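[step 3/7] inverse_fold.run input=structure_tokens len=366
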């Protein structure tokens, strides 16, 4: 059993800046929670407070219901995997993995059995006698994970463990860590700035900005129901397109950017939307929600007519770049599309897939 809870946790470095602000997170047994957000938003600091490597300025951290604010890191029964692996260069793979257990004076047989089991799980059996410098980046990362596994901790903490790997290896290790999570049934808190890692690995995402939590939820909840413009723009790749405009019209209510771009909105929502008339409203559209052909009867009346500036054919899909009211837009369309640069196209929209945000960036739900 492992249950971790952060209650109103804040961190102030050297009496000045508040870099983590009143954070509340619950990590359930076997859950894979990812802390994600731009660099400097306080993810590592939060993780390091859970590990006991940073003091908690305000609030409480509980592991299995026990407040651990004043418990030494070594007594918290957690294991942490760092970005730089932190392997001992003069020790073999076996010795690196065994080191923590030796320090804790485990019997030799128990150490052998745990290290061999971890090596089997991580496919490292043939490298046990090698030194780290004779291993690839991915293998070193697996040793670092192995060193955590042998401890059989209550909770695994990962701090950007894949950042030093090249793109292909990163994808491979991503699935390996996900498989490992299933195999070990482990409780994991994982920090990354990469929204794709967060979306693909996490069972729950905690999205942070400037030390504050913006939204917590399963990956597709954040994708489908972002609470604000920041979450909407951070989750999804390529990012959601945004453009400012106004709610206009009396009987036929619409979102209007300029004389060329006006989107008719669902008339049954007229009451919810009318209150935003006269205010700046931001429209958000995901690149994948444009289409070259009208998909249904309902959508054929809503389209943006524009001139494509750049076409990027990627094989499995094609990106079209265009500008609306000085904002760069991307549409992600079928690779069978024959659109060329300078072509004038109609890009159809599904009104149910549009997002609107008020002046403060809060989502307008209608
Ligand atoms: P992230 O992991 O999201 O990139 P961090 O938790 O590392 O962010 O850092 C959050 C903020 O705290 C940053 O502005 C960083 O400069 C600051 N910070 C981190 N460590 C210290 C420290 N030891 N002293 C003072 N400020 C720090």
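[step 3/7] decode complete -> sequence:
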């Amino acid at each position: 059993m492992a249950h971790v809870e952060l209650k109103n946790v804040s961190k102030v470095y050297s009496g000045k800046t508040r870099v983590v602000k009143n954070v509340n997170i619950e990590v359930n047994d076997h859950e894979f929670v990812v802390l994600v957000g731009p660099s400097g938003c306080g993810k590592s600091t939060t993780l390091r407070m859970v590990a006991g490597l940073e003091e908690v300025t305000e609030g409480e951290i509980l592991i299995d219901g026990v407040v651990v604010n004043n418990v030494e890191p070594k007594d918290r029964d957690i294991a942490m995997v760092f970005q730089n692996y932190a392997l001992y260069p003069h020790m073999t793979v076996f010795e690196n993995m065994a080191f923590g257990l030796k320090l804790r004076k485990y019997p030799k047989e128990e150490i052998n059995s745990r290290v061999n089991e971890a090596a089997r799980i991580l496919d490292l059996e043939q490298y046990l006698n090698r030194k780290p410098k004779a291993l690839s980046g991915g293998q070193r990362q697996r040793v670092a994970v192995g060193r955590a596994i042998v401890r059989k901790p209550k909770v695994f903490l990962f701090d950007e463990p894949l950042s030093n790997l090249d793109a292909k290896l990163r994808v491979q290790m991503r699935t390996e860590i996900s498989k490992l999570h299933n195999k070990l049934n482990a409780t994991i808190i994982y920090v990354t700035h990469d929204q794709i890692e967060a979306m693909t690995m996490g069972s729950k995402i905690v999205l942070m900005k400037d030390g504050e939590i913006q939204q917590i939820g399963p990956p597709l909840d954040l994708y489908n129901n972002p609470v604000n413009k920041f979450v909407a723009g951070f989750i999804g790749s390529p990012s959601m397109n945004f453009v400012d405009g106004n709610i206009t019209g009396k009987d036929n209510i619409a979102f209007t950017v300029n004389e060329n771009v006006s989107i008719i909105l669902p008339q049954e929502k007229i009451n919810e939307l009318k209150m935003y008339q006269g205010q700046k409203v931001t429209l958000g559209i995901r690149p994948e929600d444009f289409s070259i052909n009208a998909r249904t009867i309902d959508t054929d009346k809503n389209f943006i007519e524009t001139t494509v500036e750049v076409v990027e054919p990627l094989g499995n899909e094609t990106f079209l770049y265009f500008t609306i009211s000085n904002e760069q837009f991307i549409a992600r369309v079928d690779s069978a599309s024959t659109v060329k640069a300078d072509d004038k196209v109609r890009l159809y929209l599904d009104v149910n897939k549009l997002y609107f945000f008020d002046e403060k960036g809060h989502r307008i739900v209608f």
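[step 4/7] annotate
The mean pLDDT is 92.
The first helix runs from residue 43 to 51.
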